[in-house]
Amino acid sequence: MASHPPSACCTRGFKHQGIASGEIKKIGDISFTSELDYVTRFLKEGGGLDVGYVAHPYFVAAEELLAIKGPYAISAAQTDSVFPSNLRHDTEELLIKVGLPWQITLFSGTEHGFSVRGDLSNKAVRFAKEQAFVQAVTWFGEHL
């Protein structure tokens, strides 16, 4: 990660998307099972994002959640050692405190990473992956 710090990766991405020129008025972003959750980190005041969606979050700090300044959605796995039920419930409480639109969808029969590396021969996993996609598209359709 030393060669790709958050500031370098995100600044470059936003620049290429026309943010600097003002051509784009709002931007949403998605994070899938990443060691560095740029969506949560940059959904803060002055961070460059307006709307966020995260599938199976990966080590999101409470401080980052409390700092968000835009609508935030999560697709969560039933079995997830990185985002277990107690952390999911803590996240709900933090998002309530923030007071912005939020959504957490929990998919039964799934494990962390289902939306990117799930076993599509498993009917529950395939359904969850498809619905997570629908959730993201619907979320951005509503909030962008």
TrEMBL record:
One of its GO terms (molecular function) is hydrolase activity. The keyword Hydrolase applies. The keyword Hydrolase applies. Signal peptide: none annotated. It holds the Pfam family DLH. Keywords: Hydrolase. InterPro entries: AB_hydrolase_fold, Dienelactn_hydro. SUPFAM superfamilies: alpha/beta-Hydrolases. Residues 63-143 form the Dienelactone hydrolase domain. This is Dienelactone hydrolase.
